[in-house]
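User: I'm writing a short methods note and want a consistent example. For FtsX-like permease family protein, I'll paste the sequence; you return only the structure tokens, no commentary, since I'll be parsing the reply automatically.
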Amino acid sequence: MRPLRALIISMRGLWSYPTRTWLAVLGIMISTLLIVFLLSVLYNFKTSLVGQVESMGVQQIIAAPGRILNSESSISQANLSSLLSYASVTSTLTYKDAMDVKDKLPEIIAAAPQIETVTHVAESSKTIESMYTGTTPDYLDMFSLQLEEGRFFTEEETNKEAPVLILGQAVKQLLFEGRSALGQKVKIKGIEFEIIGVLKEKQLIGFNFDERVYTGYPMVSNSANLKNASMIFFKFQSNEPLDIVRDKIAKVMIPNHGGIRDFGLLAPDGAINMINTIADLVTAIAVGITGVSFLVGGIGIMNVMLLTVKERTREIGIRKAVGARWWDILLQFLMEATYISVLGCVLGLAGSYGLLRLLHSFFPVLSAQFPLEMILWCLLFSVVLGVLFGISPAIKALRIKPIDALRYE
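Assistant:
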């Protein structure tokens, strides 16, 4: 019963000065809210991004312009310093690269080069800007895209440069609002296209599918006078290790690039490694910056407790005179400091959760998970913080002599 009695005495002492107590609680609450909210956003952003990368399929390789300087390692094996030396270069990727890899490597079951430019899409009564994107029929399966109506263009239509078009959901809404787009005509680069399909809405961090229009790669290349792809997506089916498949793709592509490897081959493991590396760096910076606010909050607790000890000197002397042990006094003041810290932490956690749900309502693509381990670590840290900053006031209370305390006014 001794701890319970100490807790009751602590509560009475603290709430004798409610303004001062709430200010101390507020300091811890703001510190907790800042750090937990930031860490939760980073955690959910990382989780969403990794989940979307994995949903694209573990057996997918992306060819992108650029490489890690002075390094033979792949992105999946790169550390932070290597990633910072990743050189972005003008794309030399071509439609031929994609077709050669698909034709020469039986393990490559799909290849989707992507060429793109921003241009005007004109309907009879409205003109908008959209990302004019050329690719192959494999693109649909590569990203698990679904059609709301109509169909995707075929391999034959791609090769013949048929003027057929697929609309992203945002483009369809802007041009036709509630009307069906199938069979309608639009003009791009002076060419009249027939709309044969509309994609369902698709949200993927890093890729905007909804504000694009899609047709065959040769059509975009010739009509927009573009030569090089921005990226090439490969899907493979093989029991061989990923690095071996990646090396095979590189060997097919390098001769098309004059014997120079001026491109990177990024697989989901590399993307996940990059995401984790960057997320860990940003998390460390966020903890370092917001952790200072916890230090300020802890100092606030200590100041409140020191004032409390001074104002309750006579009470401490009376308790000692009637038989209170040193550990009773120590327990009382440590409980008071811990109570302030834990209460501030709980309020901060509640505020963080509310802000996280609010953020999710504006950005649904960002999940709203609130990791249990983060809550437990935060509560544990608040207990440690309370004890740490409550030790000095508690020791000061222990040093008060009963005879001096009884004389104190």
